[in-house]
């Protein structure tokens, strides 16, 4: 069963929130590339800033949200290409290559070296504009429409705050990554670089323990 994450609705704000991280800015560039016209970007930013986007649901390869404007309430469905099985395996190996990488991800950071090394392995983690697909129940002929762009802007804020949102959209949710790292570390602790593997195992064990506490605080 595909795990869906429902993100809280963003409250209205006076100024347009801007991405502060390098990976968040990369997502914003992709949104800008996907837009048909600057006027659409301006209108979509206004909708996002006004809190007109409802809760965004994300899952591997897909996101859904409702957007309200003066003409009505619209449903936006969007897609991001998921990584193939070989690419997912390569990405897991890239994360495991340095024990500090999983700790960085859990702390809300996406190391630049991780993405560079993934690209060297043939894995493009950050999407470009042409990869951001969308459909909307409005009748506007442009794709993405203003409503879809508004959702993509708010997705940029989510990705900016938590790179696991990006990983989930690309097909590697947080729990699956932790499980793969846990299984990998368990089969490699006897190798010569066992100290690094032990560090990785400790980080993954701590993350899994924290996840269990969040799921069952009384357990």
User: For the terminal residues, how far apart are their CA atoms?
Assistant: 24 Å
Rg, Å, rounded: 19 Å
Distinct helical segment count: 9
Helix content: 40-55%
Q: What share of residues are in beta strands?
A: 5-15%
Order of helices and strands: EHHEEEHHHEHHHH
What is the count of β-strands?
5
Mean pLDDT: 86
Ranges with pLDDT <50 over ≥5 residues? Answer: 189-196, 209-215
Sum up the overall morphology in one term: elongated
Largest sheet: 5 strands, antiparallel
What class do helices, strands and sheet pairing give?
alpha+beta
Give the strand order, joined by hyphens, for the main sheet. Answer: 1-2-3-4-5
Walkthrough of the structure:
With 219 residues, the chain is of the alpha+beta class. The chain has 9 helices and 5 strands, in the order E-H-H-E-E-E-H-H-H-E-H-H-H-H. The chain has a 5-stranded antiparallel sheet with strand order 1-2-3-4-5, covered by helices on one side. A hairpin with a 2-residue loop joins strand 2 and strand 3. Helix 1 runs antiparallel to helix 6, helix 4 runs parallel beside helix 9 and helix 6 packs across helix 7.
């Amino acid at each position: 069963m595909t795990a869906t994450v429902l993100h809280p609705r963003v409250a209205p704000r006076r100024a347009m929130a801007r991405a502060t991280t390098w990976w968040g800015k990369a997502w914003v560039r992709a949104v800008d590339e996907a837009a048909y016209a600057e006027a659409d970007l301006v209108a979509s930013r206004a909708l996002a800033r006004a809190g007109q986007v409802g809760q965004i649901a994300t899952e591997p390869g897909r996101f859904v949200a409702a957007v309200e404007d003066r003409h009505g309430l619209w449903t936006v469905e969007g897609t991001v290409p998921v990584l193939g099985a070989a690419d997912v395996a390569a990405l897991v190996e890239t994360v495991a290559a340095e024990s500090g990488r999983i700790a960085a991800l859990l702390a809300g950071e996406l190391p630049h070296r991780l993405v560079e090394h993934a690209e060297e392995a043939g894995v493009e983690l950050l999407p470009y504009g042409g990869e951001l697909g969308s459909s909307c129940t409005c009748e506007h002929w442009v794709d993405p429409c203003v409503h879809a762009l508004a959702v993509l802007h708010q997705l940029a804020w989510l990705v900016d705050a938590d790179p696991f949102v990006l990983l989930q959209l690309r097909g590697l949710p947080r729990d699956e990554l932790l499980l793969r790292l846990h299984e990998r570390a368990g089969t490699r602790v006897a190798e010569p670089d066992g100290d690094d593997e032990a560090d990785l195992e400790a980080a993954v064990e701590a993350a899994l323990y924290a996840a269990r506490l969040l799921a069952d605080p009384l357990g």
